[in-house]
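Hi U.,

Before I forget, here's the chain from the pilot set. I'm dumping it here mostly so it's searchable later in email.
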Amino acid sequence: MKIIKTGFEHNNFKASLPTTNNQQNKKSDNITSPLEKSPVKDTYEISIGYVNDAHGQTNNMLRILSGLEGDLILSAGDNDIGDEKNKAVHKATFKFLNLGKVTATALGNHEMDTTQADLIDSLKEYNGDILTINMKKDLVENQDKEEVKNLGRANLLDYLKPSKIVEVKGEKIGLLGTAPMDLLDRLTHPAYHTDCHVDNLDDSIKDIQKEVDNLKNRGINKIILLSHLGFKKDKKIAEETSGIDVILSGHSHELIEGITEGKNLLYSADKEPVVLTEAGRDGNYFGKLNLTFDKDGIITKAQNNLGETGLFRRNMVNKHIFEETLGKPEKIGVIKFAPPPPKSLTEENPHANFVCDVMKAESDSDIAIWHNCGVRNFFHAGEIDSRDIKDISPFLDFVAVAEVPEKTIVDLFKKAIKDTYSSSSRKPGLFAVSGLDYTVNEKDGTLVEMNFTDKQGKVHKIDINNPSETKKYKVVTDEFLMSAGADFNILAPEEDCIKYPYDKDVMVCDYIKRLNKPVVINQTGRIKYIR
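Structure:
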C-alpha cells in the first residue's frame, strides 16, 4: 500500500514556526519556541481524513471506503457529477458520504450539475452538511413561477449551511465552506442556477473572516475551511485571514504530498501556521492529516499522508450496498495491457485515444475527438465490467455525429491549446483523437501542425494557417463537446447532429464484447510536443 507520510514535528521543524503574538506574552514561562512546551494537558491531537473531487467515481469511492479514516472525515466538494440523467450516481455518491462518515463537505460545482430540487432530495438522505459561506441566491418567491417549475428551482440555501460546530474527542471544531467563483461557468445546465451567484475573491475573504470571527466569539479556537475555490485562491485566503488552522482544498485538482513551508504550510495574517492540502482528482487519492494543537488552538505538529486509492480493495458489503442503487455491472472482457494514466491534462492519454478509436469505428466517422477534462478514470489490466468503463466517462453525454468544416476543427484546437497553456491548472486540457495527429508548442501554447489520416491509412497535411471552410469531415464526439459549448466553441449545432441514444461507455462495452479477445491499451503518438 502506497502511503506518503511527511510533516513537520518538534525535532525537525522548530525553526519554521515563529513565535506568535500570543506566545510572545508568555516569556515568563521560559518558553523560547511554541514547540518546546507540550505536556499532555496542554495539547490536543486529531486526525482528519479527507477527500475532494471524487467526481462520482463509484469504484474509487468503494476503494476509498476501505482506507479512509480519521477522528473527523471531511470533503472539499465535487463528490458528485452529472445532471438529473445520473440520478443513480447521485444516490450512490451520498451513500458514499454516509458510509464514509463524512461530517461535512464544501459545495462544489458538480453538486450543482443537477436541479436545485434534485440536490435537495439528495441532501435529505445525507447525514452530514454541505457548507458554503459565499454563495448567494434569490428567493423562489420572487421569481417567475413557471420558470421555477420548469427549471426545478427551490430555496436551496435553506438546506445548506455557512458553517457548523462539531465536537471531536472532547473539543469543539469549527467548520465552514466555500463554493467556486466560476460556479455558473462550470455547470452542465447553467440555466438551472442563474438565480445564484458566488462572491468574488475579495468579498469571499470578507465572508470567511466574518464567519471565522463568529466562531471564535463562540469560543472555537480550532477552525477548518472546506474550500472549492482552488489551491491558488486558498493560499491567498490562508495568508490574508486570521483564525483558520486548516484549509482542505478542491477544484484545482492539485495533488499535495506532505507539508512544505511556503507551499502548503503558510502563515495567517496573525502569523500563525495554516496547513493547506488537496488530494488530486477523481478519487485517485485520499488523505489523512494528523495534527497537534497547543492549548491556544495553534498547530504545533502536522503530518500529511496520502493513500493511493487503486491499492485498496473494494469491501464486498459496501459493493452490495452500491449495487442496490447502481445495479449489478456486466462483465465485459479482459484488458491485457494498460499503461498508467497521465498525470496532467496536457499529456497524451492512451486510454482516451482508445475510446476515440471505438467511437470512430462504431460510428463509421472520419475523426473522433474527446476532451481530456472529460476523462475521469482509466483502464486497468485484468477483467473489467461495465462499471469500470462507465467510470472512465461518468457524464451521461450521448454520442453525436456531424459534418464539421476543417476550419471549425482547427479553430477548436487552437483555442483549447491556448486556453490550456494559459491556465496554471492546465484546464481545459488537450484533446484525445482518432484519425488526427497534431503538434503543440508548449512554450507559447500554440498549434504547430495537424494531419488527417483517412480510412485507407493515407496521411493528409492540414493547412492550419489557412484551413478550408468548405471541406468537411464526419466527426464523432459527445453532445457536450459537439453542441453545448461550455469550455469550447461548438463544432455543430444540435439540429445538424446525428445523436445516438446512448453514451460512449455503451459503445466501448459493445466493441470489447464483439472483439472477444484481450484488449491492449497503448494508443499513442497522436500528440507531439515542442518543448
